[in-house]
Design a protein that fits this description.
The protein is an alpha/beta fold. The protein contains twelve helices and seven strands.
């Protein structure tokens, strides 16, 4: 009975997240006409409603020239790190992006792996997959490459063969999964021996207050679904990965505060007096490897 209840709760979380990000895709991301858009009736998802997607991307380490070369709408302001830089991609590699959204990191990875490489984006939201596929023609025209494709699927059950991927990347998505250990097992399954992981995500420095955990806005805003930094390391290790490195990037939360994002302001208002969001949440770069 408990197992059935847990699965119902997990499915409810998936549907809530899917609906929120479908709204982001329909609205065109966080640079939609009239200001920011997002999951929660005008609030953002891991991005600055009051700022711009490119402004956030520049602050967290994306290169100006790369951003300028992206298809329109590929950068939707949903990032909390730069996993393509972390991954140190090489020509000829096969790259898998979990929660690929409008295609930002896929289109940046494509030129790095070149014509002999391949980039696969997976997203569970049909509207996001449709948006990313629409952007492929512009990517091909600009780069001269035909090496990026997008698939509909859940990151807990990846539509990718065993041992077929050199590098798994993901940007502010794993925290949204209701079954994170299963996601890490899937990462290990699809990686080739010696393959590696480069993930940017949100993680907790300490448990969130109960009232914040229960906020729908906090979940879709990539905060209530986050787990402790130590849990992230444990999930990766239990999945069989090695050489696990965790680097905290507190600047992301500071940037979100500076953007005066309404969603984050709502969450901060629910924290104990004098507490800051950065006391609880950090952006986290995770790298790991599958043993040979």
């Amino acid at each position: 009975m408990s197992g059935s209840s847990d699965e119902k709760n997990a499915q409810a979380v998936r549907e809530q997240v899917r609906a929120g990000y479908a709204e982001v895709a329909r609205a065109g991301g966080l640079d939609a006409a009239g200001g920011g858009s997002g999951c929660c009736s005008g609030q953002s998802c891991c991005g600055p409603a009051a700022g711009t997607a490119d402004a956030l991307a520049r602050k967290i380490g994306y290169d100006e020239a790369e951003l300028a070369a992206l298809p329109d709408g590929a950068n939707m302001g949903l990032s909390c790190g730069n996993p393509t830089a972390l991954a140190a991609l090489q020509p000829g590699e096969v790259v898998l992006d979990l929660g690929s959204g409008g295609g930002l990191d896929c289109f940046l990875a494509g030129p790095r792996v070149g014509p002999t490489g391949r980039v696969i984006g997976v997203d569970m939201t049909p509207e996001m997959v449709s948006k990313a596929r629409h952007n492929v023609a512009a990517y091909q025209a600009h780069s001269g490459l035909d090496n990026v494709d997008f698939r509909l699927g859940e990151i807990e059950h990846l539509p990718v063969a065993d041992g077929s991927v050199d590098v798994v990347i993901s940007n502010c998505v794993l925290n949204l999964s209701p079954d994170k250990p299963q996601v890490w097992r899937e990462l290990a399954r699809v990686l080739k021996p010696g393959g590696r992981v480069a993930v940017s995500d949100l993680a907790l420095l300490r448990p969130l207050p109960e009232e914040v955990q229960g906020m729908v806005a906090a979940l879709v805003g990539c905060i209530a679904g986050a787990v402790l930094v130590s849990d992230t390391e444990r999930f990766a290790r239990e999945a069989g990965l090695v050489d696990i490195l965790l680097e905290q990037k507190p600047d992301y939360v500071a940037h979100m505060t500076s953007f005066a994002d309404p969603l984050y302001q709502k969450i901060v208002a629910a924290l104990p007096a004098a507490a800051k969001l950065g006391d609880y949440v950090t952006s986290l770069d995770v790298s790991a490897r599958k043993p040979r």
